[in-house]
Design goal:
It is a single chain. The protein is of the alpha/beta class and 486 residues long. The protein folds into two domains: 268 residues, Aldehyde Dehydrogenase, Chain A, domain 1; 196 residues, 3-Layer(aba) Sandwich (Aldehyde Dehydrogenase, Chain A, domain 2). 38% of the residues lie in helices and 22% in strands. The chain is built from 15 helices and 24 strands. The strands form seven sheets. Strands 16-17-18-13-12-20-21 form a seven-stranded mixed beta sheet, with helices on both faces. A six-stranded mixed beta sheet has the order 9-8-7-10-11-23, sandwiched between helices. α5 links the parallel β7 and β8. The radius of gyration is 24 Å and the shape is globular. The termini are far apart. Bound molecules: nicotinamide-adenine-dinucleotide. Nicotinamide-adenine-dinucleotide binds next to α7 and α8.
Amino acid sequence: MAKMFMNAEWVGAASGQTYEVKNPADGSVVDSAPSGDAQDAAAAVDSARAASKDWAATAPDERAGILHEGVNLIKQQTKDLAQLLTKEQGKPFMESMGELNHFLHGMEFYIGMASKIRGSQVPLPPTMNPNCYGVIMKQPVGVCVGIVPWNFPITLMGTKVGPALIAGNPIIIKPASTTPLTTLKIIGLLNEAGLPAGVLNCVTGPGSKVGAALITHRDVRRVALTGSSETGKQVMALAGPDFKRITLELGGSDPMIVCPDADIAKAVSGAMIGRYWNAGQACLAVKRLYLFEEIYEEFVEKLVAKVGRYEPGDGMAKAEKPRIRMGPLHTAFQREEVETQLADAVSKGAEVLVGGKRPDDDSLGKGHFFAPAVVASVSEDSKLVTEEVFGPVLPVFKVSELDEAIAKANNSKWGLGSSIWTNNMKFANKAAREIESGMVWINQLHYGYDEMPFGGVKASGMGHEHGPEALEYYLEPKSVVFGGLG
Ligand code: NAD
């Protein structure tokens, strides 16, 4: 049985309760984990609080050195960790390896930032004495909490652990209840590398109990959530009364616009990877595809042919070439939700061009498999447009000009990512300026680079992860005025 980690120890839940973590490919039990509650959350916060002063005073190079050692330990076990991730999450092994490598790259990015945190000095008008100046110190915010979803459990843990620890804060990670296992192993390895007790902790269990108890604990100063917009509202309401620092990385419904002059082959690949990676369970994913009428037929034909090559199956098995392996959806609920959204579109006149149903293969009957779909003639009021579609279904729309494409792209409550595929500089510039989203990719995959700030507008959240910018959310500026030294 897996255990939680706090104060340098592996522990069970205070209540003794556990729950099973199941493989989405066949329903088998991968392991069990402690079902924590408010008591466990409080114990983790106590251990973090006790560690915070010394960790803040630890030299940045020393913090970086320990994490560097931790990253090396993880690198020695990447394949085993990727296998475990596939078992608990469902994604194909190759995608799990990609996720672990992205996590390691992100950690190395922040390790490199350790010695580059800067405050500033400001000359001030003399009031009592000449030579008055101010210093803006950057200090760690204090005990942090990172709440992580199940779709990319490892990279999205890293986007919180890396900047929090490098900035000198202790942190408690709350993984999604269905994906705690690989997270716990990685947190164990980072601790094994020499983190002092209480600096990096992990509490497992339901978000409504453990997450809420962590957020409302009086000693927690900073909460980073990646999750749905609905959970974002709850986290904001819980953190608000005590003015806690929060960042919210929430849902999305990314538009992708393809113009008549685009490189069609590249754009088709961009749509394929952008929509169907991780079985479509990604925040940054192509969820609405707007094609200029001049290229609509050609594009859709090529896309449908490629999507038809997907072979749903267990993530640990290899697909027969030239097929492409797609894992199961993460839960039964997730698959039912996507089915409901697709059925709603069909009831309003949509046409499913490929996929869109459970595979016939009886051997897959115990998993949450679903054949990826492309859907045409989708009405604007259907759930495929108005809701976040967290699965492998892509609605395609015909547009006749850029203004129309941008207006439709912006007709969404979300604003996470977006892309335009064109070689026309005027079009690219206009889209970059006018699309309401935190990111715009031009002739590029919807991908969160470690080097660039990443965050959304509207219901997609507030604040940023990734890039040097993310460090600022883990540092509190303090203005100090030196007035009497003249
Ligand atoms: P979710 O909101 O259900 O859960 C996310 C985390 O929040 C889990 O750890 C959960 O246990 C916890 N949680 C749930 N209720 C809580 C509460 N009341 N208080 C505290 N914690 C609580 O999301 P999910 O289903 O795990 O993930 C899918 C969602 O995450 C999608 O909407 C997706 O778009 C979004 N997401 C966003 C990003 C981004 O960076 N913008 C990245 C990945 C996923």
